[in-house]
From TrEMBL:
Catalyzes the transfer of a phosphate group to glutamate to form L-glutamate 5-phosphate. It comes from Demequina muriae. PANTHER family: GLUTAMATE 5-KINASE (PTHR43654), ISOPENTENYL PHOSPHATE KINASE (PTHR43654:SF1). Pfam families: AA_kinase (PF00696), PUA (PF01472). The gene is proB. Keywords: Amino-acid biosynthesis, ATP-binding, Cytoplasm, Kinase, Nucleotide-binding, Proline biosynthesis, Transferase. GO terms for molecular function: glutamate 5-kinase activity. InterPro entries: AceGlu_kinase-like_sf, Asp/Glu/Uridylate_kinase, G5K_ProB, Glu/AcGlu_kinase, Glu_5kinase, Glu_5kinase/COase_Synthase, Glutamate_5-kinase_CS, PUA. This is Glutamate 5-kinase. Its EC number is 2.7.2.11. Substrate binds at S65, D152, N164. SUPFAM superfamilies: Carbamate kinase-like, PUA domain-like. Pathway: Amino-acid biosynthesis; L-proline biosynthesis; L-glutamate 5-semialdehyde from L-glutamate: step 1/2.
Length: 379
Protein backbone atom coordinates (compact mmCIF):
# COMPACT_ATOMS: atom_id res chain seq x y z
CA UNK A 1 0.00 0.00 0.00
CA UNK A 2 1.42 3.40 -0.86
CA UNK A 3 1.15 6.36 1.45
CA UNK A 4 -1.51 7.91 -0.78
CA UNK A 5 -3.82 4.91 -0.48
CA UNK A 6 -3.49 4.46 3.24
CA UNK A 7 -5.48 5.40 6.33
CA UNK A 8 -4.90 8.22 8.79
CA UNK A 9 -1.34 7.19 9.72
CA UNK A 10 -0.26 7.22 6.11
CA UNK A 11 -2.12 10.48 5.51
CA UNK A 12 -0.28 12.23 8.33
CA UNK A 13 3.07 10.73 7.32
CA UNK A 14 2.32 12.08 3.87
CA UNK A 15 1.80 15.56 5.34
CA UNK A 16 5.31 15.26 6.75
CA UNK A 17 6.77 13.90 3.53
CA UNK A 18 5.15 16.69 1.49
CA UNK A 19 5.61 19.50 4.02
CA UNK A 20 6.80 22.68 2.36
CA UNK A 21 8.06 24.16 5.62
CA UNK A 22 9.37 21.82 8.29
CA UNK A 23 10.82 22.55 11.74
CA UNK A 24 13.44 20.10 12.97
CA UNK A 25 14.50 20.21 16.63
CA UNK A 26 17.50 18.29 17.92
CA UNK A 27 18.18 17.92 21.64
CA UNK A 28 21.39 18.18 23.61
CA UNK A 29 21.32 14.45 24.32
CA UNK A 30 21.74 13.77 20.59
CA UNK A 31 24.47 16.35 20.00
CA UNK A 32 26.79 15.71 22.93
CA UNK A 33 29.08 12.77 23.37
CA UNK A 34 29.42 10.77 26.60
CA UNK A 35 31.85 13.43 27.88
CA UNK A 36 29.10 16.07 27.62
CA UNK A 37 30.90 17.86 24.79
CA UNK A 38 29.56 18.71 21.34
CA UNK A 39 29.93 15.89 18.83
CA UNK A 40 30.93 17.44 15.47
CA UNK A 41 29.98 14.16 13.83
CA UNK A 42 26.37 14.52 15.03
CA UNK A 43 26.26 18.06 13.63
CA UNK A 44 27.59 16.92 10.26
CA UNK A 45 25.19 13.99 10.08
CA UNK A 46 22.18 16.22 10.74
CA UNK A 47 23.37 18.86 8.26
CA UNK A 48 23.65 16.14 5.59
CA UNK A 49 20.04 15.07 6.20
CA UNK A 50 18.68 18.63 6.22
CA UNK A 51 20.63 19.56 3.09
CA UNK A 52 18.75 16.70 1.41
CA UNK A 53 15.44 18.21 2.52
CA UNK A 54 16.48 21.57 1.11
CA UNK A 55 17.61 19.95 -2.14
CA UNK A 56 14.05 18.62 -2.50
CA UNK A 57 12.80 22.22 -2.53
CA UNK A 58 11.48 22.22 1.04
CA UNK A 59 12.12 24.97 3.60
CA UNK A 60 13.74 24.01 6.90
CA UNK A 61 14.15 25.78 10.23
CA UNK A 62 16.51 24.01 12.62
CA UNK A 63 15.98 24.45 16.35
CA UNK A 64 19.11 23.17 18.00
CA UNK A 65 20.22 22.76 21.57
CA UNK A 66 23.88 22.17 22.30
CA UNK A 67 25.21 25.63 23.18
CA UNK A 68 26.05 24.58 26.71
CA UNK A 69 27.53 21.28 25.48
CA UNK A 70 29.65 23.16 22.95
CA UNK A 71 30.96 25.50 25.65
CA UNK A 72 32.08 22.79 28.07
CA UNK A 73 35.35 22.04 26.24
CA UNK A 74 36.48 25.63 25.52
CA UNK A 75 35.65 26.63 29.11
CA UNK A 76 37.72 23.75 30.49
CA UNK A 77 34.80 22.48 32.57
CA UNK A 78 34.61 18.86 33.76
CA UNK A 79 30.90 18.50 32.84
CA UNK A 80 27.77 20.43 31.88
CA UNK A 81 27.28 23.16 34.53
CA UNK A 82 23.98 23.19 36.41
CA UNK A 83 23.93 26.62 38.06
CA UNK A 84 22.30 29.32 35.95
CA UNK A 85 25.15 31.84 35.87
CA UNK A 86 27.77 29.31 34.75
CA UNK A 87 25.33 27.73 32.30
CA UNK A 88 24.72 31.20 30.80
CA UNK A 89 28.42 31.89 30.46
CA UNK A 90 29.02 28.44 28.98
CA UNK A 91 26.17 28.88 26.49
CA UNK A 92 27.58 32.26 25.50
CA UNK A 93 30.91 30.63 24.63
CA UNK A 94 29.33 27.52 23.14
CA UNK A 95 26.67 29.14 20.95
CA UNK A 96 29.34 30.63 18.68
CA UNK A 97 31.10 27.28 18.40
CA UNK A 98 27.79 25.51 17.75
CA UNK A 99 26.79 27.81 14.90
CA UNK A 100 30.33 27.70 13.49
CA UNK A 101 30.08 23.90 13.37
CA UNK A 102 26.72 24.05 11.59
CA UNK A 103 27.92 26.80 9.22
CA UNK A 104 30.84 24.64 8.13
CA UNK A 105 28.69 21.52 7.83
CA UNK A 106 26.01 23.26 5.72
CA UNK A 107 28.60 25.13 3.63
CA UNK A 108 29.73 21.75 2.29
CA UNK A 109 26.28 21.62 0.67
CA UNK A 110 26.41 25.24 -0.50
CA UNK A 111 23.89 26.32 2.14
CA UNK A 112 24.00 29.53 4.21
CA UNK A 113 22.73 29.54 7.77
CA UNK A 114 21.40 32.42 9.89
CA UNK A 115 21.43 32.41 13.67
CA UNK A 116 18.18 33.36 15.47
CA UNK A 117 18.33 33.51 19.27
CA UNK A 118 14.98 33.85 21.00
CA UNK A 119 13.87 34.39 24.57
CA UNK A 120 10.56 33.27 26.07
CA UNK A 121 9.62 36.95 26.08
CA UNK A 122 10.02 37.10 22.31
CA UNK A 123 7.31 34.48 22.04
CA UNK A 124 5.04 36.03 24.67
CA UNK A 125 4.90 39.63 23.55
CA UNK A 126 2.84 40.15 20.48
CA UNK A 127 5.08 42.75 18.88
CA UNK A 128 8.14 40.52 19.31
CA UNK A 129 6.21 37.50 18.01
CA UNK A 130 5.48 39.46 14.84
CA UNK A 131 9.15 40.39 14.54
CA UNK A 132 10.19 36.75 14.79
CA UNK A 133 7.65 35.81 12.13
CA UNK A 134 8.95 38.45 9.74
CA UNK A 135 12.55 37.41 10.39
CA UNK A 136 11.83 33.74 9.60
CA UNK A 137 9.87 34.55 6.47
CA UNK A 138 12.60 36.80 5.11
CA UNK A 139 15.42 34.37 5.89
CA UNK A 140 13.53 31.52 4.23
CA UNK A 141 12.61 33.65 1.21
CA UNK A 142 16.28 34.45 0.80
CA UNK A 143 17.20 30.77 0.86
CA UNK A 144 18.88 30.93 4.27
CA UNK A 145 18.49 28.06 6.73
CA UNK A 146 17.59 29.61 10.12
CA UNK A 147 19.25 28.02 13.14
CA UNK A 148 17.34 28.76 16.34
CA UNK A 149 18.24 28.37 19.99
CA UNK A 150 17.07 29.96 23.19
CA UNK A 151 19.09 33.06 24.03
CA UNK A 152 20.55 31.29 27.07
CA UNK A 153 23.08 34.00 27.92
CA UNK A 154 20.29 36.40 28.93
CA UNK A 155 17.43 34.04 29.84
CA UNK A 156 16.55 34.23 33.53
CA UNK A 157 15.23 31.44 35.75
CA UNK A 158 11.80 33.07 36.02
CA UNK A 159 11.24 33.39 32.35
CA UNK A 160 12.96 30.86 30.18
CA UNK A 161 12.09 27.73 28.28
CA UNK A 162 15.13 25.81 29.54
CA UNK A 163 14.39 23.00 27.13
CA UNK A 164 14.01 23.66 23.41
CA UNK A 165 10.94 21.49 22.84
CA UNK A 166 8.29 24.12 23.51
CA UNK A 167 10.42 26.75 21.79
CA UNK A 168 10.43 24.54 18.67
CA UNK A 169 6.64 24.13 18.82
CA UNK A 170 6.16 27.88 19.09
CA UNK A 171 8.59 28.45 16.21
CA UNK A 172 6.46 25.99 14.21
CA UNK A 173 3.31 28.00 14.91
CA UNK A 174 5.00 31.37 14.35
CA UNK A 175 6.46 30.23 11.05
CA UNK A 176 3.25 28.47 9.97
CA UNK A 177 5.12 25.22 9.42
CA UNK A 178 3.35 22.07 8.22
CA UNK A 179 5.38 19.65 10.31
CA UNK A 180 7.57 19.48 13.41
CA UNK A 181 10.18 16.76 13.89
CA UNK A 182 11.58 16.34 17.41
CA UNK A 183 14.87 14.42 17.33
CA UNK A 184 16.09 12.93 20.57
CA UNK A 185 18.03 10.00 22.05
CA UNK A 186 15.08 7.56 22.17
CA UNK A 187 13.22 6.15 19.18
CA UNK A 188 9.83 7.45 20.23
CA UNK A 189 7.39 7.81 23.08
CA UNK A 190 7.12 4.78 25.37
CA UNK A 191 4.38 3.85 27.83
CA UNK A 192 7.05 4.37 30.52
CA UNK A 193 10.70 5.43 30.33
CA UNK A 194 12.59 3.01 28.07
CA UNK A 195 14.17 0.26 30.13
CA UNK A 196 11.20 0.06 32.50
CA UNK A 197 9.94 -3.55 32.43
CA UNK A 198 6.87 -3.89 30.18
CA UNK A 199 7.34 -0.46 28.60
CA UNK A 200 6.27 -0.37 24.94
CA UNK A 201 6.77 2.10 22.13
CA UNK A 202 3.71 4.03 20.94
CA UNK A 203 3.39 4.37 17.16
CA UNK A 204 0.82 7.13 16.97
CA UNK A 205 -1.10 9.57 19.13
CA UNK A 206 -4.47 10.90 17.97
CA UNK A 207 -5.12 13.20 20.91
CA UNK A 208 -4.84 13.54 24.69
CA UNK A 209 -6.97 10.40 25.20
CA UNK A 210 -4.13 8.28 23.77
CA UNK A 211 -1.76 9.63 26.43
CA UNK A 212 -3.79 8.46 29.44
CA UNK A 213 -1.66 6.26 31.70
CA UNK A 214 1.62 7.04 29.97
CA UNK A 215 4.47 7.61 32.41
CA UNK A 216 6.77 10.46 31.41
CA UNK A 217 7.81 11.29 34.95
CA UNK A 218 11.42 10.15 34.63
CA UNK A 219 13.77 13.05 34.06
CA UNK A 220 15.45 13.22 30.71
CA UNK A 221 18.92 12.04 29.93
CA UNK A 222 21.87 13.51 31.86
CA UNK A 223 22.46 15.95 29.00
CA UNK A 224 18.93 16.93 28.03
CA UNK A 225 16.70 19.23 30.00
CA UNK A 226 12.99 18.67 29.67
CA UNK A 227 12.69 14.89 29.25
CA UNK A 228 9.49 13.56 27.67
CA UNK A 229 7.17 15.98 29.51
CA UNK A 230 8.23 18.99 27.48
CA UNK A 231 8.12 16.95 24.26
CA UNK A 232 4.48 16.08 24.92
CA UNK A 233 3.78 19.75 25.70
CA UNK A 234 5.45 20.68 22.42
CA UNK A 235 3.45 18.04 20.54
CA UNK A 236 0.25 19.39 22.07
CA UNK A 237 1.03 23.01 21.12
CA UNK A 238 1.82 21.99 17.54
CA UNK A 239 -0.97 19.46 16.93
CA UNK A 240 -3.67 21.72 18.37
CA UNK A 241 -2.40 24.32 15.89
CA UNK A 242 -2.86 21.87 13.02
CA UNK A 243 0.81 20.87 12.73
CA UNK A 244 1.83 17.19 12.41
CA UNK A 245 4.60 16.04 14.79
CA UNK A 246 7.06 13.16 14.72
CA UNK A 247 9.14 12.27 17.75
CA UNK A 248 12.07 10.12 16.64
CA UNK A 249 15.64 9.18 17.31
CA UNK A 250 18.28 11.50 15.83
CA UNK A 251 19.73 8.36 14.23
CA UNK A 252 16.47 8.09 12.22
CA UNK A 253 16.44 11.76 11.15
CA UNK A 254 16.46 11.01 7.41
CA UNK A 255 13.48 8.63 7.69
CA UNK A 256 11.60 10.98 10.03
CA UNK A 257 11.75 13.99 7.69
CA UNK A 258 10.86 11.73 4.74
CA UNK A 259 7.62 10.69 6.48
CA UNK A 260 8.74 7.06 6.83
CA UNK A 261 7.35 4.91 9.63
CA UNK A 262 9.79 5.73 12.43
CA UNK A 263 9.22 7.18 15.88
CA UNK A 264 5.88 8.29 17.30
CA UNK A 265 3.49 10.19 15.07
CA UNK A 266 1.20 12.84 16.60
CA UNK A 267 -1.76 13.63 14.38
CA UNK A 268 -2.89 17.25 14.04
CA UNK A 269 -6.01 17.79 16.15
CA UNK A 270 -6.79 21.48 15.76
CA UNK A 271 -7.16 23.88 12.94
CA UNK A 272 -4.69 26.48 11.86
CA UNK A 273 -5.73 29.66 13.62
CA UNK A 274 -4.57 33.09 12.68
CA UNK A 275 -1.17 34.00 14.09
CA UNK A 276 -2.86 36.32 16.52
CA UNK A 277 -5.03 33.58 18.03
CA UNK A 278 -2.18 31.04 18.02
CA UNK A 279 -0.15 33.50 20.00
CA UNK A 280 -3.06 34.03 22.37
CA UNK A 281 -3.55 30.29 22.91
CA UNK A 282 0.03 29.20 23.34
CA UNK A 283 2.43 32.00 23.96
CA UNK A 284 0.77 35.01 25.46
CA UNK A 285 1.41 35.91 29.10
CA UNK A 286 -2.02 36.89 30.38
CA UNK A 287 -2.47 40.10 32.36
CA UNK A 288 -5.42 39.00 34.46
CA UNK A 289 -8.39 36.70 34.67
CA UNK A 290 -12.13 36.95 34.22
CA UNK A 291 -14.09 34.47 36.34
CA UNK A 292 -17.23 33.28 34.59
CA UNK A 293 -20.33 31.31 35.64
CA UNK A 294 -21.52 27.93 34.36
CA UNK A 295 -23.80 29.50 31.78
CA UNK A 296 -20.92 31.43 30.28
CA UNK A 297 -18.74 28.28 30.25
CA UNK A 298 -21.46 26.43 28.31
CA UNK A 299 -21.90 29.32 25.89
CA UNK A 300 -18.15 29.58 25.25
CA UNK A 301 -17.58 25.85 24.84
CA UNK A 302 -20.81 24.90 23.12
CA UNK A 303 -21.89 27.76 20.96
CA UNK A 304 -18.51 29.41 20.73
CA UNK A 305 -20.22 32.67 21.64
CA UNK A 306 -18.80 36.03 22.71
CA UNK A 307 -18.32 36.62 26.44
CA UNK A 308 -21.11 38.79 27.86
CA UNK A 309 -20.71 40.77 31.08
CA UNK A 310 -23.82 39.03 32.46
CA UNK A 311 -21.86 35.77 32.89
CA UNK A 312 -18.88 37.36 34.67
CA UNK A 313 -18.57 36.88 38.43
CA UNK A 314 -15.18 38.39 39.26
CA UNK A 315 -12.29 40.32 37.69
CA UNK A 316 -8.72 39.53 38.74
CA UNK A 317 -5.53 41.39 37.94
CA UNK A 318 -5.03 44.62 36.11
CA UNK A 319 -5.35 44.73 32.34
CA UNK A 320 -6.08 47.27 29.66
CA UNK A 321 -8.52 46.85 26.77
CA UNK A 322 -6.85 44.67 24.12
CA UNK A 323 -4.62 42.76 26.53
CA UNK A 324 -4.74 38.95 26.88
CA UNK A 325 -6.73 37.49 29.79
CA UNK A 326 -7.68 34.00 31.00
CA UNK A 327 -11.36 33.09 31.28
CA UNK A 328 -11.79 30.81 34.27
CA UNK A 329 -14.85 28.69 35.10
CA UNK A 330 -16.35 27.99 38.56
CA UNK A 331 -14.17 24.85 38.90
CA UNK A 332 -10.99 26.92 38.49
CA UNK A 333 -10.14 25.53 35.03
CA UNK A 334 -9.12 27.88 32.22
CA UNK A 335 -11.93 27.71 29.68
CA UNK A 336 -10.66 30.18 27.13
CA UNK A 337 -8.32 33.05 26.53
CA UNK A 338 -9.27 36.32 24.99
CA UNK A 339 -8.24 39.86 24.21
CA UNK A 340 -10.25 41.94 26.69
CA UNK A 341 -12.68 44.37 25.09
CA UNK A 342 -12.49 46.65 28.16
CA UNK A 343 -9.97 47.41 30.90
CA UNK A 344 -10.12 45.57 34.26
CA UNK A 345 -11.56 48.69 35.91
CA UNK A 346 -14.32 48.96 33.30
CA UNK A 347 -15.00 45.20 33.40
CA UNK A 348 -15.38 45.43 37.18
CA UNK A 349 -18.21 47.95 36.70
CA UNK A 350 -19.79 45.86 33.94
CA UNK A 351 -19.72 42.41 35.51
CA UNK A 352 -23.06 40.70 36.09
CA UNK A 353 -25.03 43.25 34.02
CA UNK A 354 -27.16 42.44 30.99
CA UNK A 355 -26.41 44.25 27.75
CA UNK A 356 -29.51 46.42 28.22
CA UNK A 357 -28.52 47.31 31.78
CA UNK A 358 -25.01 48.19 30.59
CA UNK A 359 -26.44 50.71 28.14
CA UNK A 360 -28.74 52.20 30.75
CA UNK A 361 -26.28 52.48 33.62
CA UNK A 362 -22.90 53.00 31.93
CA UNK A 363 -23.83 54.42 28.52
CA UNK A 364 -24.26 53.05 24.97
CA UNK A 365 -20.50 52.53 24.53
CA UNK A 366 -20.69 49.75 27.11
CA UNK A 367 -23.73 47.95 25.66
CA UNK A 368 -21.65 45.21 23.99
CA UNK A 369 -19.79 41.99 24.70
CA UNK A 370 -16.86 42.00 27.12
CA UNK A 371 -14.82 39.88 24.70
CA UNK A 372 -15.85 39.42 21.08
CA UNK A 373 -15.93 35.88 19.68
CA UNK A 374 -13.22 36.79 17.12
CA UNK A 375 -10.94 37.68 20.04
CA UNK A 376 -11.39 34.35 21.87
CA UNK A 377 -9.81 30.92 21.77
CA UNK A 378 -11.46 28.10 23.70
CA UNK A 379 -8.78 26.01 25.43
N1 LIG B 1 7.63 7.58 28.48
C1 LIG B 1 8.84 7.90 27.98
N2 LIG B 1 9.13 7.56 26.68
C2 LIG B 1 10.34 7.89 26.16
N3 LIG B 1 11.33 8.54 26.83
C3 LIG B 1 11.10 8.91 28.10
C4 LIG B 1 9.84 8.61 28.73
N4 LIG B 1 9.89 9.09 30.00
C5 LIG B 1 11.10 9.68 30.15
N5 LIG B 1 11.86 9.58 29.02
C6 LIG B 1 13.22 10.10 28.87
O1 LIG B 1 13.25 11.27 28.04
C7 LIG B 1 14.58 11.38 27.51
C8 LIG B 1 14.64 12.38 26.38
O2 LIG B 1 14.52 13.69 26.90
P1 LIG B 1 15.79 14.69 26.97
O3 LIG B 1 16.91 14.03 27.68
O4 LIG B 1 15.31 16.00 27.49
O5 LIG B 1 16.19 14.79 25.44
P2 LIG B 1 16.59 15.98 24.49
O6 LIG B 1 17.96 16.44 24.87
O7 LIG B 1 16.55 15.33 23.15
O8 LIG B 1 15.57 17.07 24.62
C9 LIG B 1 14.92 9.97 27.13
O9 LIG B 1 16.30 9.73 27.15
C10 LIG B 1 14.17 9.12 28.19
O10 LIG B 1 15.03 8.61 29.16
N1 LIG C 1 19.50 26.12 25.03
C1 LIG C 1 20.22 25.03 25.67
C2 LIG C 1 19.42 23.78 25.49
C3 LIG C 1 18.86 23.20 26.72
C4 LIG C 1 18.56 21.73 26.50
O1 LIG C 1 19.34 20.87 26.89
O2 LIG C 1 17.42 21.44 25.76
P1 LIG C 1 16.94 19.97 25.33
O3 LIG C 1 18.03 19.31 24.60
O4 LIG C 1 15.78 20.28 24.42
O5 LIG C 1 16.51 19.20 26.53
C5 LIG C 1 21.56 24.79 24.98
O6 LIG C 1 21.70 25.14 23.81
O7 LIG C 1 22.45 24.23 25.59
Amino acid sequence: MTAHEGGPVEATREIIAQSRRIIVKIGSSSLAGADGRLSEQSVTRLADVLAGVRAAGRQVILVTSGAIAAGVGPMGLPARPRDLATAQATASVGQGALVAAYSAAFARHGLTVGQVLLTADDMMRRSHYGNAQRAFNRLLDLGVLPIVNENDAVATDEIRFGDNDRLAALVATVAHADALVLLTDVDGLYTAAPGTPGSERIDEVHGPEDLAGIDVSRRGSALGTGGMITKLEAASIATTSGIAVVLASAADAASAVAGDAVGTLFHPTGKRDTTRLQWLAHAARTRGAIMVDDGAVRALQGRRASLLAAGVTEIRGSFEAGEPVDLIGPDGAIVARGFAGFSAAEAEQMRGLSTDALGETLGEGYARELIHIDDLVVM
